[in-house]
């Protein structure tokens, strides 16, 4: 399976940025060894999705409400994202969990809503620094997976250690590989053969300089990129560092 390199713009970017990015991604996408996804703010989602029509680059939302419609002022449903041109949605990002107190149960409901609207879903998990220092990262991520993943799951998992997001720090390659192996075990124990196919993205300070090493690790099926995804040249350099899919990493779901 090809790697997925996804850009999460978070609360950054205006119309001009979206159009500029779409032009740059369109021009480069066909020659890249991975699938590309860009998740801009909802205000420019339609603009960028429209500008990417006919290209292999997909657009996605950064969050959705668990309900399809109703009296929820300021919220956006998965169906609305789809209507705006999204094919993907991120749920359970640590910034949503921290800023908005999102529970695993809510993240699961959002993941179910995304899938019901026909979106591919990226479910984010990851431990805090204190949890890693205490050696509790597997317990924390295991509990997040147990609570956040729907009973039937065909999406993508993103492992994003909270302490690596926006800090310029990353876990060691051995620690990333160990966590991705742990997540793979959880997925196969719960979903059987389907769990061997799930792409598991790494996120947290992925940059052009560390992308090749991180994307080449076992069970790393791509990257969820924050800051570096705002600069087209950096985002494309990360994407270009993805491994070319081979039979062996296809078998591993990589
Ligand atoms: P940075 O790449 O800026 O560390 O952000 C990672 C992230 O949170 C992507 O969702």
Q: What CATH architecture label applies?
A: Alpha-Beta Barrel
Q: Give the uncertain stretches in residue-range form.
A: 249-254
Domains (count): 1
**Could you name the CATH homologous superfamily?**
Aldolase class I
Overall geometry comes to globular
Assembly state (oligomeric): single chain
What percent of the residues sit in helical stretches (DSSP H or I)?
Answer: 40-55%
Biggest beta sheet summary: 8 strands, parallel, barrel
| Mean pLDDT over the full residue set | 96
CATH class: Alpha Beta
Q: SS-based structural class?
A: alpha/beta
Structure description:
The chain is an alpha/beta fold and 254 residues long. It has a single domain, classed as Aldolase class I (TIM Barrel, Alpha-Beta Barrel). 44% of the residues lie in helices and 14% in strands. It has twelve helices and eight strands. It has helices at residues 15-29, 42-51, 78-83, 94-99, 104-116, 129-133, 137-148, 173-191, 194-197, 208-215, 232-240, 247-251, and strands spanning 4-8, 35-39, 58-61, 88-91, 120-125, 156-159, 200-203, 222-225. It has an eight-stranded parallel β-barrel, surrounded by six helices. The longest helix is centred in the C-terminal third of the chain and has 19 residues, at 173-191. Residues 249-254 have low confidence and may be disordered. Bound molecules: 1,3-dihydroxyacetonephosphate (13P). 1,3-dihydroxyacetonephosphate (13P) is lined by residues 8, 93, 160, 165-166, 203-206, 224-228.
């Amino acid at each position: 399976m090809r790697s997925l390199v996804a850009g999460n713009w978070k609360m950054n970017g205006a119309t001009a940025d979206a159009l500029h990015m779409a032009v740059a991604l369109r021009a480069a996408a066909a020659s890249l060894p991975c699938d590309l996804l860009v998740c801009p703010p909802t205000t420019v989602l339609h603009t960028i999705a429209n500008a990417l029509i006919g290209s292999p680059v997909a657009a996605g939302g950064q969050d959705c409400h668990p309900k399809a419609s109703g009296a929820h002022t300021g919220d956006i449903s998965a169906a609305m994202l789809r209507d705006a041109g999204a094919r993907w949605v991120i749920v359970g990002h640590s910034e949503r969990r921290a800023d908005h107190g999102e529970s695993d149960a809510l993240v699961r409901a959002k993941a179910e809503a995304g899938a019901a609207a026909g979106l591919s879903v990226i479910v984010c998990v990851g431990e805090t620094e204190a949890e890693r220092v205490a050696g509790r990262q597997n317990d924390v991520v295991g509990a997040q997976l147990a609570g956040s993943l729907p009973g039937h799951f065909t999406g993508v998992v993103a492992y994003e250690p909270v302490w690596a997001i926006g800090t310029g720090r990353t876990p060691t390659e051995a620690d990333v590989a160990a966590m991705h192996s742990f997540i793979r075990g959880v997925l196969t124990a719960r979903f059987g053969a389907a769990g061997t196919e799930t792409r598991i993205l790494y996120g947290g300070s992925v940059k052009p300089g560390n992308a090749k090493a991180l994307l080449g690790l076992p069970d790393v099926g791509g990257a969820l990129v924050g800051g570096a995804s705002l600069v087209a040249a950096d985002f494309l350099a990360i994407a270009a560092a993805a491994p070319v899919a081979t039979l062996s990493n296809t078998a591993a779901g990589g």
